[in-house]
């Protein structure tokens, strides 16, 4: 089933120069066993809800032709081979026989915190000994204990760590990543983190969306003066990050021990004034009413473990995506997981993401998140896959370009050594991703490359 000679050939390919320095060669994937197109199931445009989340738009014996970093043609292998545009590029095309394996749009990991230096092993052991996430934070561990190293780090050092995170995510099939700052908590270190994210993005052929999370926690030096810290976020961090074109979204950790709803409204107002989108970590630790946040039209509300029943009904009327991050529940050893079934059945658009971070979810793996979504949140494999691709793209407002395999969209693909799409969520603890295509560049787990 898995063609080792194909992987070996890809691994030997010479690297292309810097990501984005030249257009990738046209690429033809043929003999795909199951191509999960995730194309629109009906006329309705918008994030997937309810039954539509199960519609993967599967094509068997399929092919995809990509050129100029875009998807040009999608269909049965014999149809795509007849496309006249193939002839125009012939002699130049990289052709890959997919050996009847499964191909899908690259995962869109719409919630990650990659701008950190070190794992939090003391927190890990304390939790194993019985302390909770909040108890550890109150005793001086938690988010605040990741801050000093980030403040001290140079921008290139931080960039290397972030890039290593993107590469690990990519090895598991991710081609688009939302990346948050949030471990600097000074104007200078938050801007440095965002600049390092931009530097890492420039060295990786995938797509990165940057989010300012200056309001992650109140830093030590502002203890007891949280409103002054909120002022700093609003009047300096947000305007400066905007001016330097470092950021697309602003996020707030709206919860017990972090920021209040009033703080969040103030920060969202400042973000809106700068033309930025907003999202929030909310209802992770405690029940929080969502109405005050919904008036800002957030792109996503994330975690949602303790969302109130009446808010689920309200959310169904919005395009705001509920982004569920079950890796955090798993790693914190919680018995309860976010109420995916209730959200989906009520018509709320749901995405899933890794929440890659050193405190609550140190995993770069979207396939592991798919496994958790199915085993602990009772999502069907098809629902989990749509939540990890097209709805992730909606959560980042990128659905015009990402999240499905359709002509005109960016050429972002992931090829897995499996025969049935349900295996994506079935195997766990090992990576079956053979290679990915990022904006048209073919990428093995070594480097972007081209077949000669
Ligand atoms: O999404 N809840 C807030 N932020 C992260 C955890 C960050 C950390 O512990 O370093 C989360 O779980
Ligand atoms: Fe998070």
Please provide a written account of the structure.
This protein is an alpha/beta fold and 452 residues long. Helix content is 34%, strand content 21%. The protein contains 18 helices and 17 strands. It has helices at residues 4-11, 77-81, 84-88, 121-128, 133-138, 147-152, 155-171, 187-202, 226-243, 261-273, 291-294, 309-315, 326-331, 340-345, 366-377, 381-388, 390-395, 423-426; strands spanning 27-36, 58-67, 70-76, 94-97, 102-105, 107-112, 174-180, 207-215, 249-254, 277-282, 300-303, 321-324, 350-352, 413-416, 433-438, 441-443, 448-449. Strand 7 (174-180), helix 8 (187-202) and strand 8 form a beta-alpha-beta unit. The radius of gyration is 21 Å and the shape is globular. It binds N-(iminomethyl)-L-glutamic acid (NIG) and fe (iii) ion. N-(iminomethyl)-L-glutamic acid binds next to loops.
List keywords for this structure.
nine-stranded mixed beta sheet, 34% helix, 21% strand, alpha/beta, binds N-(iminomethyl)-L-glutamic acid, binds fe (iii) ion, 18 helices, disordered N terminus, disordered C terminus, eight-stranded parallel beta sheet, single chain, 452 residues, globular
